[in-house]
Design brief:
Elements: E1 2-5, E2 15-17, E3 19-21, E4 28-30, H1 32-38, E5 41-49, E6 55-68, E7 71-79, E8 84-86, H2 88-93, E9 96-99, E10 104-107, E11 125-129, E12 132-136
Parallel strand pairs: 3-8, 4-7
Antiparallel strand pairs: 1-2, 1-6, 4-8, 5-6, 6-7, 9-10, 11-12
Length: about 140
């Protein structure tokens, strides 16, 4: 079970929901009834490609606070489907890993007490200046 809440409406009770953890998906996806219960505001529309290859536009709402096993993050959510899907972005943000043998989501054992984030890598990065992006030498 994960906990979803609306940080803009702290007086609303958080929802405890079952979620499918999907490392092949990027975003948090929530059904319309969760949007209504948490009184989430639509920020924009997003174009998405679903598993069967169809492309569609769906509402993007937020912010949503996601909490699991003492870890939390703030994300936007796509309004899609009839159950909650937890994608790779919130899992990475909370430093969670999928344990296939246990069919569970768990804190990364390399950082059991507090989420860890990789902020900068040795890979090639891009510096954003104004409206143009220029490669940065590494």
């Amino acid at each position: 079970m994960i906990e979803l809440s609306n940080p803009r409406q702290p007086e609303l009770h958080p929802l405890e929901v079952s979620a499918l953890a999907d490392t092949g998906a990027l975003m948090l996806c929530i059904p319309e009834h969760v949007v209504l219960q948490l009184q989430l505001e639509q920020e924009s529309l997003r174009e998405v490609t679903v598993a069967d290859g169809r492309v569609m536009q769906v509402p993007y709402v937020g912010p949503v606070r996601v909490a699991y096993q003492g870890r939390s993050c703030f994300v936007g959510a796509l309004v899609l489907g009839d159950s909650v899907l937890l994608g790779a972005v919130p899992m990475e943000d909370m430093d969670l890993i999928v344990h296939p043998a246990r069919q569970r989501l768990e804190p990364d054992p390399r950082s059991p007490n507090i989420p860890h984030a990789l902020v900068k890598t040795a890979r090639r990065s891009v510096t954003i200046k104004g409206t143009q992006a220029e490669p940065t030498p590494t």
